[in-house]
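User: Reviewer 2 asked us to show a designed sequence for the structure in our supplementary figure. I'm pasting the structure tokens here. Could you produce the per-position amino acids so we can include them in the response letter?
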């Protein structure tokens, strides 16, 4: 069963866990004026089968999905597609949940009362500017400071590598610039990701900027 959703600027694959008995909406590539979507249950096996057929750009977890189930769904999705971007919808005022999911790598966090057409536009905006997008109802200064936390201690070499990552150099280019092996740079990158709690280089740079490390 398919439906249409208007006002999506650049429709791409989006997998959405949503409210109701069948809680997953799949947005497929479609005409720029609309997007088709179909539903399936918010269960790991159902999600795995769906992801085996499509490589979505976004996984969106909406209301009506228990926290443990959401964690399981996100875990399997990232195992299959590490570059998959995550958006969460949550109750207004639940800043702690917002913070938890931001720490886990969520890219967009919005109120669970937001119409899906507006959610789709938010995803498009977040992709266009490559930024973390949080609805202002969650973006309290106290919550922000708790989310950012304390900057980890980095070695001089790790700082050098981090700054070169920020300049969009590859591991090989960084190795050449620092006159070391590429394996050595890969080791430093892994340590940076671990210390910054990041899933990839781009997220590491964003978190380092938030923490004032670069």
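Assistant: Here is a per-position design you can include in the supplement:
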């Amino acid at each position: 069963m398919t439906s249409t959703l208007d006002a999506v600027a650049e429709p791409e694959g989006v997998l959405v866990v949503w409210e109701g008995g069948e809680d997953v909406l799949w947005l497929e590539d479609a005409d720029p004026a609309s997007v088709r979507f179909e539903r399936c249950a918010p269960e790991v096996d159902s999600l795995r089968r769906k992801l085996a057929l499509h490589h979505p750009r976004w996984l969106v977890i909406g209301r009506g999905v228990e926290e443990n189930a959401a964690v399981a769904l996100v875990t399997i999705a990232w195992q299959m597609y590490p570059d998959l971007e995550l958006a969460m919808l949550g109750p207004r005022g639940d800043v702690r949940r917002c913070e938890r999911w931001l720490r886990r790598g969520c890219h967009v966090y919005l109120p669970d009362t937001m119409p899906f057409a507006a959610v789709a536009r938010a995803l498009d905006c977040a992709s266009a500017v490559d930024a973390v997008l949080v609805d202002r109802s969650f973006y309290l200064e106290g919550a922000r400071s708790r989310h950012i936390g304390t900057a980890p201690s980095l070695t001089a070499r790790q700082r050098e590598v981090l700054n070169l990552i920020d300049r969009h150099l590859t591991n090989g280019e960084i190795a050449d610039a620092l006159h070391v092996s590429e394996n050595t740079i890969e080791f430093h990158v892994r340590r940076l990701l671990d210390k910054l709690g990041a899933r990839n280089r781009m997220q590491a740079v964003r978190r380092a900027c938030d923490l004032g490390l670069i």
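For the response letter, you might also mention the following. The chain has two domains: 3-147, 150-210. The chain has a mean pLDDT of 76.
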